[in-house]
Automatic annotation (TrEMBL):
It comes from the Bacteria. The chain crosses the membrane at residues 40-56, 76-98, 118-144, 164-187. Residues 3-190 form the NnrU domain. InterPro entries: NnrU_dom. This is NnrU domain-containing protein. GO terms for cellular component: membrane. It is found in: Membrane. It is a multi-pass membrane protein. Keywords: Membrane, Transmembrane, Transmembrane helix. Signal peptide: none annotated. The keyword Membrane applies.
Length: 193
């Protein structure tokens, strides 16, 4: 469990720098240069991610159960993640109305993903992982939306075609992950018995 906690602290800590210390971040980029900063950021992120994956995997072998979720919650979680995939794709398709309205669709996608997994998983390790991501995404969303309002930052929408692209790509990615990727990577079939 310690590796999971350390991994979460590193991974979410690195990804919180822009929320908590944007000026410090800019000073480091100015001091080091953009590429070295991105390199250090990537190394720290990968280290944190590796530790949380290993720690989560170890914790799954000897779980501490807080509650036992019924099987149907796995199906519900799989369905709830559908909008998370669409929101995630809307992050990368420029000019969507989704991004114009939400501002930070990746953080909202993370909230939906984490909440759906908390519904379907009742181990202490699940609460640490998904609860940690949920708390981080809620905090980040609040901070960045407040910053956007203070700066009167707008995310312009180009046209509905961009939204259709994000929705279609999100549906395809969700289906591929729900039907194949989740079993292959995680070992759990979201729609299996």
């Amino acid at each position: 469990m310690l590796l999971l906690i350390v991994g979460l602290l590193i991974f979410l800590g690195v990804h919180s720098i822009n929320f908590l210390a944007p000026n410090w971040r800019q000073q480091r980029i100015h001091q080091l240069g953009a590429l070295p900063w991105k390199g250090l950021y990537a190394i720290a992120s990968l280290l944190g991610f590796a530790l949380l994956v290993i720690g989560y995997g170890q914790a799954r072998l000897e779980p501490t159960w807080l509650w036992l979720a019924p099987t149907w919650t796995r199906h519900l979680a799989a369905l709830i993640t559908l909008p998370a995939f669409i929101l995630l794709l809307a992050t990368y398709v420029p000019g969507t109305h989704i991004k114009a309205r939400i501002g930070h669709p990746m953080l909202l996608a993370t909230k939906v993903w984490a909440l759906s997994h908390l519904i379907a998983n009742g181990g202490l390790h699940d609460v640490l992982l998904f609860g940690g991501f949920l708390a981080w995404a809620v905090f980040g969303f609040i901070v960045l939306r407040k910053r956007d309002r203070a700066a009167d930052k707008q995310y312009p929408a180009v046209g509905i075609v961009r939204d259709v692209i994000a929705v279609v790509l999100g549906l395809v990615a969700w289906a591929a992950f729900a039907m194949v990727g989740h079993v292959w990577l995680i070992g759990v079939a979201p729609f299996g018995g």
